[in-house]
Amino acid sequence: MKKQQAARTNGKSAEASRSNRNPRNSMKAGNKNRKHDSVQIEKDIPGVPVAKNDEVIIDIIGMNHDGEGVGRAEGYTLFVQGALPGEKVSVKVLKTKKQYGYAKLLNVLKASPDRIAAPCPIYDKCGGCQLQHLSYEGQLAWKRQHVVDALERIGKLNVASSMGENHTSELETVQAAHHAGNSEAGNHVDNKASSASLHEITVLPTLGMAEPWRYRNKAQVPIGVTDGGLVGGFYARGSHRIIDMETCLIQHDKNDEVVTRVKAIARRFGISAYNEETGRGLLRHVVVKVGFRTGEMMLVLVTNGEEIHHVEEWIAAIRDELPSVVSICQNVNTRKTNVIFGDVTRVLWGSEVIYDYIGDVKFAISARSFYQVNPVQTEVLYGKTVEYAGLTGKETVIDAYCGIGTISLFLAQHAKEVYGVEIVKEAIEDARVNARLNGMEQVTFEVGASEDVIPRWKEEGIEADVIVVDPPRKGCDPRLLETILEMKPERVVYVSCNPSTLARDLRVLEDGGYRTVEVQPVDMFPHTVHVETVVRLTRM
Ligand SMILES: C[S@@+](CC[C@H](N)C(=O)[O-])C[C@H]1O[C@@H](n2cnc3c(N)ncnc32)[C@H](O)[C@@H]1O
């Protein structure tokens, strides 16, 4: 293991190990920078070599799943937002816990070759993106490595080395400590994953975007009030203070334009902005959706009450200034909550839905319906899913956790029949509408939990050649994995938004007789820490 340097900036040595020194004594001797010493010392944690407000120099040895640099101060792990692997940085300790702490980046003393100046002027204030200070190539490499680490550490899978970038043995330990007890993959994973696979699996380079900006088709902008009047933009990092924003570099520019104009129109008509503390004021959120292929746009005004003064003038101004908007809706949310939408939605003007395409499949998108926010990469992800499903037109396919049926409809173009199951009733209603819209009759959708419905389908005699799963972050329910093993489909395609739970579930499938053949990370959300992966498994 590489020895880490950690030196206090006042020049005192920090060589002593955590176990053989008295941290309290060393704190007093070694930290002249610390303010409020008498108060702070009371809070020092025995065995932790740094305390709040200490300034130390550390090497960054990796990056955690939140995009924070991971460094070591005398063996103690510090997470540093904005620091990159390979860098030497000076930091100020913000918070300490027994196993790890957080520190603020003060200076980059030795920069990573992958460090770039973040293109967005508000990157430091807004929490929306986490990786703009890392080159796009660096982001793609990190996302792949993140998947590899999880497969090896949690799934005990044997990943074929490629690209020479497996440098994470120390980081793995760090992540294990960080996740201890609260990992969504669960503690049982490491215990259960006692068997390891000998066969090598291929993890391909992350499929990124040629143009990784302006990729989002949906904006959800909170509206608030400051001394200067109505503002709309984003919540300042870690707070509920709204900062006005003119443009967001990952948002489609038409969405930016609609938000800017709607704010200006609202100010013109003296519309009040919602105040979270008092619960008063009308306009809470402006939600805008755009169909990348069709150019159609929908505007949803989320209001704290039914009545909108001057509503006709509003509509006329929007229609006049924003001809791409073909649907204006109102959603009423009077609850004191962070949840954006309330229960009632009505069309103020125009159509109830806008349309868009992913590949050749047409989708109707309503004010409330879920739709993938990066349609360009969704096509890439689903294309890979269909490829891994290996369809010839004769297969029966089950799509578990099917949402509004996007993957099901993609698969249906190449399969004999597709069964989709999803727990949210409204999503299944949308899925049926979309199946009809595309004239696809060989698709059956059912509302329910995958782990309940699919075993019943099995009892009813449905035999699947391929099962596709695309679960939420917590991964597949164990009963579903059991059912897959009992149904014995030739192929399983696993689409995942969480490498940890993916790795856990792959281990179960491997132990049950499946072989992980190929793993493809896909970058659905450039400049953020989200990692999407699609995996092909075959029955041995
Ligand atoms: C990652 S999304 C996948 C959506 C869809 N495949 C797509 O690409 O749009 C996971 C979906 O699983 C649904 N879900 C969560 N738990 C479920 C369960 N136990 N059974 C079925 N669906 C579930 C969620 O409502 C959500 O729509």
TrEMBL record:
Domain (TRAM): residue spans on this chain: 47-107
Spans annotated as Disordered: 1-43
Ranges annotated as biased composition (Polar residues): 1-25
Location of the active site: C497
Matches recorded under PANTHER family: RNA M5U METHYLTRANSFERASE, TRNA (URACIL(54)-C(5))-METHYLTRANSFERASE
NCBIfam families membership: rumA
Protein name per the record: 23S rRNA (Uracil1939-C5)-methyltransferase
Source species: Fontibacillus solani
